[in-house]
Amino acid sequence: MSDRIVMRVGESLVAGGPPGTAAEPEVAIGEMDGPMGSAFANLLGDQVKGHSRVLALLNTDVMVRPPTICVSKVTVDDSRYTNILMGTVQYATAMGVLDAVRSGDIPKDKADELGIIVSVWLNPGIVDVENLDHQVLFDIHRKATWQAIHKAMTFEPSIDWLLENQDKVVHKYFEKGLKGE
Fold it and tell me: What total number of domains does the chain contain?
């Protein structure tokens, strides 16, 4: 693939597991010699207390390609939360990125040219879950990462689908608010 990928954006929600295990990553993907590279470097170099940015790793010193930075959507102030986020979820994110390369959503020949920013959602209530099933948590976050990348790279949902379904899709928290929940 020779076409430049300046910036693509996607999101995904995967739920249905035990309480606290839902994943809702948002991703931005683009060539590192453009605006994506600037954003990536700024995030990596400008750490913010409570919102640490870490590279997606398979293990403590094995970074995935395309280089991927994980940014927490939640303020991190609990050591158990940190260990889950920077362990199971970081690993799941890395595997989801490689799944996207393996599936062809990310062209393998672009793996050294692209960068990915993943805004990671991990429910703060996860720290209160006894006997947390890390495999289920891993599987959900891995799938959600791959789906978000897939949607970014395939421009999903399409504008035609959005226009056709605009009045059929209701935001669930808006709906809850209307019901007084």
Answer: 1
